[in-house]
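Continuing the batch. This is chain 6 of the set; chains 1 through 5 are on the previous pages. Same settings as before, nothing changed between runs. Recording input and output for traceability.
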Amino acid sequence: MSLKLHKTFPDRNNFHLFSEVKKQVYIENSAGQDQSDDLNLEFLVECIVVTENDIPVGRLALYHNPELFWKDEKACCIGNFECVNKTEVALFMQHEVDHWAKENGFRYILGPMNGSTWDNYRFSVHHNNPFFLSEAIHPLYYNDLFRKVGFEVILNYQSRIERGITVNNEKVAHKIRETHLNGITLREFDASRIYEELEKLFPLVKAAFERNTLYTSISWETFYRKYAGIIRQLGTRYVLLAEKEGELIAFVFAFQNFLEKTKKQLVYKTVARKYGNEYAGVGHVIALEVMKRAVEDGMEDAIHAFMIYDATSAGISQNFNSQPYRKYVLYAKSI
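Output for chain 6:
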């Protein structure tokens, strides 16, 4: 076996090696092979590819996000990881990353993370249920490779599913009455004013997420580019805003799971509200309004996606009688 390491970047002539690794991992024209590479150019240091006998068999992207810390120590991260099931290939790449991290004063390497938690991150730890739209598809052995090169689990996440969705939920009925009395109105995201609507959402999203573990800031330009594309692709039927006296206080971002072909299925991606006791229950109310629309449209299930185990959205999900659907982990390696 002859392994060779290559460093590349999207504007270099050898970057095709980075894309070609997936041909050795996934079946041709499969969802795994066709998913976007989604490189975060803002924080990208370099891309690393390993070839075996001139065939690309492993890759990763090395990122430096200046705001990323773990345990109050400086951290870098690796993402866009793809690799054949060979420990020696993963080790060959990781040795290069470890060397760079030590040389540049980092204490931890996190992964998988494509630069920040605004981007794709985490590995799923089982594939007991079908993939849904917005999940990263990867072989389960990636978890084994990460552990074998020195990573340990630091955070756990889950997605949950409510099967046979209904709007007859007594747990949130009283919250609806209280909310209407407080003068809160609900409306759909206005796609004809996408710039203005996202501009209104931007400070609330940042405020809602900034208490999350590993939160790092995002520029308005990056936020707009990312979410405008998603909104245009998935539509606004299930993107609702809650306002009080013209002030945005909560929102839900949900969409149909177009990967599910046998029935209609909803995915709750984000449920967030302003902090404060006066806004308690608003998340439940707006989530139920989205569910009403889903039931009207013939949806049968609702997936509550990517919740950290202690997140507020997890409580909302459990109030809707959901069950575990998939678990995910994020890793760190001490340098």
